[in-house]
Amino acid sequence: MGNIGMGELIVILVIVLVIFGAGKLAQVGDALGKGIANFRKASKEGLEESKEAAPAKKDEVAPREQAKEETKE
């Protein structure tokens, strides 16, 4: 249950086409595409902001790596 095959997908698309019509279907697809693009853009900006808010400290060494360096010397 949950696996949608090609036949079921075609039936769903035909029903959507009958309900919305060809002209309206193009508008719905366009709006959906713009929404996805805006979501990706916002996600990317949010990720960049979070990286700027908590920059990585390069001079700090992890405790394990520090212990390894001490044993080598």
Structural features:
73 residues, mainly alpha, single chain, elongated
Q: Would you tell me the structural class of the helices and strands?
A: mainly alpha
Query: Which stretches of 5+ consecutive residues score pLDDT under 50?
Result: none
Query: Which radius of gyration do the C-alpha atoms yield?
Result: 26 Å
Count of separate DSSP helical elements? 3
| Fraction of helical residues | over 70%
Strand content: under 5%
State the end-to-end distance: 61 Å
What's the total number of strands?
Answer: 0
Major sheet:
none
The run of helices and strands is HHH
Give the rounded overall mean pLDDT: 79
Give the overall shape.
elongated
What does this structure look like?
This protein is mainly alpha-helical and 73 residues long. The protein has helices at 6-20, 22-53, 63-72. The protein has a domain at 14-49. The chain is built from three helices and no strands. Helix 1 crosses helix 2 (22-53). The longest helix is centred in the middle third of the chain and has 32 residues, at 22-53. It is elongated, with a radius of gyration of 26 Å. The model has no long low-confidence stretch (mean pLDDT 79).
Helix/strand layout:
Blueprint: H1 6-20, H2 22-53, H3 63-72
Helix pairs in contact: 1-2
Short description:
By secondary structure, the chain is mainly alpha-helical.
